[in-house]
What we know:
By secondary structure, the chain is mainly alpha-helical. The chain has one domain. It is built from seven helices and no strands. It has helices at residues 2-28, 35-55, 67-99, 106-132, 138-153, 160-175, 182-206. The protein is globular.
Amino acid sequence: MFQSTFYMDKIEQLEALQDIRKMMNRSVRFLSLSGLSGLFTGCYALIAGFIVYRYNNGILLIDNYTNEDIHFFITLGTITLILAISTSFLFTKKKARKEGTKLWDESAKNAFINLCIPLLVGGILCLTYISQGLNGLLAPTTLIFYGLALVNASKFTFPMVRQLGIMEIGLGLVNTLFIGFGLIFWLIGFGLLHIIYGTYMYFKYDRT
């Protein structure tokens, strides 16, 4: 009888510790991020890449952009970004409501700020490249700074975001050795990697 009571007390203590750990983890990490957000973002990127591919008449190697091309790419990229952000917001809001948590708390704010700083720096650098005619550096630069943004924000969300960021940075660095093949690296980085990441996150966290 004594051993049974002692065993039950131990189980209750372990459960209490696990609950405390979850509460502390949620207080510093934004865990309402939905895996479906990454999945749909990857699909949007692949669709945008296919549109660019058709726009270039089936040519993957692009070593010379005109101003008209840049305007088209910026417009398409903006539309894709709006779709990705809107979809991510809807899925994340749905997940937060399901878990009974706040969508915008201190952890979400920290993740957002740390994500935006590298993105803003990378965006300004890309505008500088465009003004100087260094359009071939746009693809690797966006991949590198997006990866840096993910690594920077990963301290406040799921650890796998850091791994995704490192892969994006690696792709961007390799892309600097193959200027002109930015479309291929974009499709891999923003499309394929996001689909793999989103699918993994969905089955590991969302479904459970």
